[in-house]
Amino acid sequence: MRTVLQDVRYAFRQLIRMPGFTFTAVISLALGIGATTAMFSIVYAILFDPYPYTAPERMIHLRLVDKDGQPRGFGLTASQFQQIRKSPVVESAFLTDNWSLTVTGTDLPEDVEADYFSSNAFEHFGVPAALGRGLQSSDAIDGEDPQPVVVLSYKFWKRHFNGNPAVIGQTLQLVHKNYTIVGVAAPRFTWDDVDVYVPQKITQDQKHTFYVGVRLKPGVTHAQADAALQPIVERFARETPAHFPVGKFKMHVEGLNENYIQQLGGTLNLLFGAVALLLLIGCGNVSILLLARATARQHEFAIRAAIGARRSRIVRQLLTESLLLSISGAVLGVLLAYKALDIIVLNLPPYSFPHEAAFHINLPMLAFSVAVALATGVIFGYGPRFNWHALRPRRLFNRERAKSRAAFADSVCTEPLSRVKSQSRC
């Protein structure tokens, strides 16, 4: 243990004596680790884990492509929603309508955004509530007035109730109507970015349309869904032509994340490739610096070998220095990753990514980046071990002695002939 501590102290002194080398190596590793980890965390949050919902890869938006080739959304009546749910390609569907409401009954009224959900919506999303429960089937029976219950969004609960866990069962007045708070949605449940969720009354009204969200059955492709839903939607268009474009149209289902991938996917992948290359360049710079420094220290190794240092001890010293360098770069890189992530998120366009995405440091990627940096230090710090001629104590000693003899001979040969006792050296 004492010799290990000696190696660490000596390594620290060596790095302090060469601030340029140390700074370049540590910054190279830190930039590579920090940038790669932060950028991959953004890519993972937006492209690989954007939603907390059950099977989000099978959740779709219903779209139409009109005769001009332009995609557009459309609404369905409550009865059409019921028919869509019976399609053989549909596993689950819900409907929603958005309204602006006002919190009343307080000193200062507050405008809020509300989603009116079909009673199966929270079951469709499959995200457990943070407190209490979500809406359930008994809250809105078809054809009857829904129960006066409300589910708060997580942000509204934090803002309006200061995160009070005793909010369940309290009353919230919306436009002078009292609603009983039955739950608080999970932090990542931010559908439509609204403040409250209330049950929607399902009627046979053919004028009022709703957004309908669908989850396809496992194994159903988007092309199969388009083919299966096309005749159903065409029938809807004949029933309520005012809700559909004039002329022919084609059914087109769109994944929840499809639009975001089109907007940012290529850019994010390109940026991640660039920062991954930065990590490789940083590790390459460190490897070159370590090998060059080991070569430049041959004289030091010779002296240590001459006074009895074994080859293993010299290698251990080199390994200690490179590990200390790599660990310093890794620690700084971790700190840089957290700071860089915050900066990148703040500069993302507001509606260019799903707001359900949770941006946090991706620990597997962080561990990989740190492991690459440490491996660089170990491999190239241990590399001189394989240079048998460079680190054999006897060879080091003999090489330095030969250099000393040659230097002495050169100095003798340059003396005046009257002072040369023997010219055999020359």
How is this structure best described in words?
The structure is a single chain. The chain has 426 residues and is an alpha+beta fold. It has three domains: 2-50 and 259-292 and 315-377, no CATH class; 56-256, no CATH class; 386-426, no CATH class. It has helices spanning 2-17, 19-48, 78-85, 121-125, 154-161, 222-239, 258-296, 298-306, 311-346, 363-382, 388-391, 393-413, and strands at residues 59-65, 71-73, 90-103, 110-117, 131-132, 149-152, 171-174, 177-184, 196-199, 211-216, 250-255. Strands 1, 2, 3, 4, 5, 6, 7, 8, 9, 10 and 11 form an eleven-stranded mixed beta sheet that branches. 33% of the residues are buried.
Task: Estimate the mean pLDDT confidence.
Answer: 84
Q: Assign the structural class, choosing from mainly alpha, mainly beta, alpha/beta, alpha+beta, or little secondary structure.
A: alpha+beta
The percent range for helix content is 40-55%
Number of domains as seen in the coordinates: 3
Number of helices: 12
Topology overview:
Elements: H1 2-17, H2 19-48, E1 59-65, E2 71-73, H3 78-85, E3 90-103, E4 110-117, H4 121-125, E5 131-132, E6 149-152, H5 154-161, E7 171-174, E8 177-184, E9 196-199, E10 211-216, H6 222-239, E11 250-255, H7 258-296, H8 298-306, H9 311-346, H10 363-382, H11 388-391, H12 393-413
Parallel strand pairs: 4-9, 6-8
Antiparallel strand pairs: 1-2, 1-10, 1-11, 3-4, 3-10, 5-8, 6-9, 7-8
Helix pairs in contact: 1-9, 2-7, 2-9, 2-10, 7-10, 8-12, 9-10
